[in-house]
């Protein structure tokens, strides 16, 4: 009877790959089983180092960047950089984080009982704030992609939340006719309640230098508050309910989007004086507006017809610069960083 022998599958010897930082120091040495691609290398380096989820990791050979499908050489230079995030809130009470560079989904954040109405990212991109119809604001750690704090106190839906410029505080707006100022620290205590609006407070935000808090309401007024004393400084009356209020990056202008076809721009003189400057007209009712952080006098507005329009607010009566894209439904929110992000009523997000 012939003797049968089984052979073990032949294994390729593992390859050691050395990853250097830009300084020339060794960041990591990992072993990969051939055939290994750059995606495998990235996963191995993350596992063996303390590079967190908030940082992107790329690899260079000479001056050329390796793509994920490329084969891995024995030595590479690792390039670590902070990741730009897009945060979305959903009607099921969950939020999601996305890589702004690739558009890839990263992770979902669960905890709210009702729909999320507003989201904000701290200036250092370390924390996410979500405001919900369940009357709470939740804080999340970007690094851990996990819940950190729940801020309770509002008696009705929280319609808006924003961080201060230094990231130490938050301000929230609610349909309970109040805005609240919170600590963004370990305990998340409520520092003050801003009262005086007669209807839902739809918007609340800090000025870029954190000297002022601005609130907008369905009572057709915008109020500027002294952030140090929390005293009411100015009340700006408008003909329609307020959808959005936003400061330019230098704090010199304030744009107010009402439920009408125009955005009103006010000139702000270091809180000593506020003057109406422009009425910028949109073809449809405006739901959101934001300033370009790099070109401080450029203003974008999104409206019910799905269009986003850009103006130069410093030119005469406001010069139209162009139309970037068009959603098929009402565009309800807008953010401008290195790109524009808009969300329509179908829940679709587009960048340009």
UniProtKB/TrEMBL annotation:
Instruction: Write out the ranges of the repeats annotated as WD.
Output: 109-143, 151-183, 194-235, 235-276
Superkingdom, natural source: Eukaryota
- List, alphabetically, the Pfam families matched: WD40 (PF00400)
Q: What's the protein name?
A: Uncharacterized protein
User: Native species of this protein?
Assistant: Effrenium voratum
- Cite the entry's keywords alphabetically: Repeat, WD repeat
CDD domains documented for this protein: WD40 (cd00200)
